Structure formats: structure tokens, C-alpha cells
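Can you make up a protein sequence with its C-alpha cells?

===
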Amino acid sequence: MEVFKGVYAYVWGSAFSDCSNAYIIKGDSTIIVDPGSYKSYTNLFGLMRNDGIEEVDYVFATHLHKDHIESAPMFLRKGALLSYSEKERRSHHFNIKPDFEMPRVVDFGIRIEVLETPGHTEGSLTFYIPEYSAAITGDLFFENGIPGRWDLAGGSRESLIKSLEKISNLELEFVLPGHGRIFSGRKGIEALIEKAIHIASKY
């Protein structure tokens, strides 16, 4: 589903609750962020074709947990190139070699700023799209203000809190999370980030 011009979201319901959402940014080249698990790939590919997307040039990962990146090889076999934070490799998540170092800024007609937002994992990234005041945040936090888990390999409560504080400065209008529905509205998003910081600080 196209949510903004050139930006597509594939958000899964309860039947695929163990699969991450997938997002596509299509400008002069096509990027898929977090293609998800094998379980969701067939449905994802069908929905992409319905949106007129037949090929992917790049696969970007917010982090290397299996539910976010397991189906990446399906795209790599067709010629796509893979990138993620080098810091992810230290935490021994899903072991798949990147093709190039993740840049700070990507612009194939739609500008993407790549932000380091560790906490859920050591190398977690957020992809910020200034044109739409939107961010693809992986498992940083979710629509009900619940922060991402920090108790897995490479996770850190302190880093997660700092990352939440970092994105609170972006004046976001839309958050495209790793799981659950997209949510919008600057004031509401600010309140959810504040809630996530509170929960992470308290528990």
C-alpha cells in the first residue's frame, strides 16, 4: 500500500504477528527496509506486484533479528544489494554479509537520513524521511508507547532511552514501526515517545 508518494508499507495483522512490517522507498532506485521473515515473503511479494513493484535494488535492515531480515536472500538472489549497521555483526544476530557500508544519507529521488538508534540491538537504525516527517523505526518503540526490548543480545536500556530521546527531536508526523500499525500526529507521537522513555526508565 502506498502511504506517501514513493513510499509503500506492508503492515501485518495477527496472523503474521511474528513477522516484521516491510517498507519500500521507490525513487530512482528501489529500497526495501526490513523485508521480514520467510513466512511473510509470499504475501509480501504478491502485494508488491499489486503495487507495480517487480524489482528491488537495495535491502536495508533496521537490525538483524530474524523476523526482520530472514527473507533478504530472496531479494539478494535477484541482484539486490544489502546494507545494515556494521555494529550489528558484533552481536551475532542473523549472519548475512553486507555488500556495502550503510551511508549516513541516501537519496535516490527521496532523501533518507540514516540515524543510529541502538538499544534494542547494538546497531539498530532508524530511517528518517524528511519530506514526509516520517521515520521507519524498527523495534525502537510501538504504537501504544511500549519500548522495544533491551534484554536480548546487544541490547541496552540506557542506549534505548537515549535513542528515544534522539528521535523525539525529529518533530515526527508519522512513525512506521517494525510491528503494528503506522501511527501519526506530532503531539500523539511525542506523548508515546515520552511514555516509552518512562517505561524503559522505570522497568
Notes: The first strand starts at residue 2 and ends at 4. Residues 186-202 form the longest helix (17 residues). The mean pLDDT is 95.
